[in-house]
Amino acid sequence: MAVDVVVASARPKPQGDPSRPPPHAHHQPPQRPPPAVPRHRARSARRARGVGLVLLVDDSLDVREMYSQYLSYRGFSVITAPDGSQGIELALAARPDVIVMDLAMPNMTGTTATERLKNHPRTRNIPVVILTGHPFSAIEQGALEAGAAMVLTKPCLPEDLEERVRALLGPAGLN
Fold first, then answer.
1. What is the pLDDT of residue 170?
2. Average pLDDT value for residue range 135-141
3. Per-residue pLDDT tens over the stretch 14-27
4. What band does 1 get if pLDDT is binned at 50, 70 and 90?
5. Is the dihedral of CA 142, 143, 146, 147 positive or negative?
6. pLDDT band at 139 (very low <50, low <70, confident <90, very high)
7. Which residue pairs, CB below 8 angstroms and at least 24 apart, start in 140-149?
8. Terminus-to-terminus CA distance in the chain, angstroms?
9. Is the bond into 155 cis (omega within 30 degrees of 0)?
10. Concatenated DSSP letters for 136-169?
11. Which helix (H) or strand (E) holds 111?
12. pLDDT at 119 over 90
């Protein structure tokens, strides 16, 4: 069995002054990355466009994908985290307008994450919606005492979640 090997040869270099670019080359200034927008300006620009940023924290990939796709389709910007500790980190970095938090997650429960968010000066005013599959009044009461704005029970229609998020964002859909 024979194998053909093809070797590409380099183009011959044009003759002439090596300090000058070849005549076919267009001189363009080096591209600079756009300046970084401070987070507070990015957040106010997002609000001016009528788009709210929602942080969705849930250990179920299916739940994160379903709600984030729906909310994105409805005009929200959505970021996600798979557990409470990563949700806290993302909330501190991105400063979302609303946080939707699952209650039962590994590493850190939604109640504990909500308490920590409500005790931090950068995130204490961000409304938190607890989304849980445990429809017990004691669990709901504990989540509200931790600082959650409201508790929704799974299964929750995406339309119902959107309605609650918009209500938390104020009359125009934003804070």
1. 80
2. 80
3. 555 555 555 554 44
4. very low
5. negative
6. confident
7. 142/111, 143/103, 143/110, 143/111, 143/114, 146/111, 146/112, 146/114, 146/115, 146/118, 147/114, 147/115, 147/117, 147/118, 148/101, 148/114
8. 72
9. yes
10. -HHHHHHHHHHT-SEEEESS--HHHHHHHHHHHH
11. helix 110-118
12. yes
How far, in Å, CA of 74 to CA of 50, rounded?
11
Residue 82 and residue 70: Cα distance in Å, rounded?
Answer: 18
Token look-up 């910007």 returns 77
Class of domain 51-169: alpha beta
The alpha carbon of residue 138 and the mean position of all alpha carbons in its chain are separated, in whole angstroms, by 30
Q: Please give the angle made by the CA atoms of 93, 96 and 100, to the nearest 5 degrees.
A: 115
DSSP 45-106: HHHHTT--EEEEE-S-HHHHHHHHHHHHHTT-EEEEESSHHHHHHHHHHH--SEEEEESS-S
Enumerate the domain spans of the chain.
51-169
Between CA 157 and CA 76 the distance in angstroms is 16
pTM, entire model: 0.71
Place of tokens 């000066």: 121
CA-to-CA distance for 79 and 96, rounded, in angstroms?
A: 9
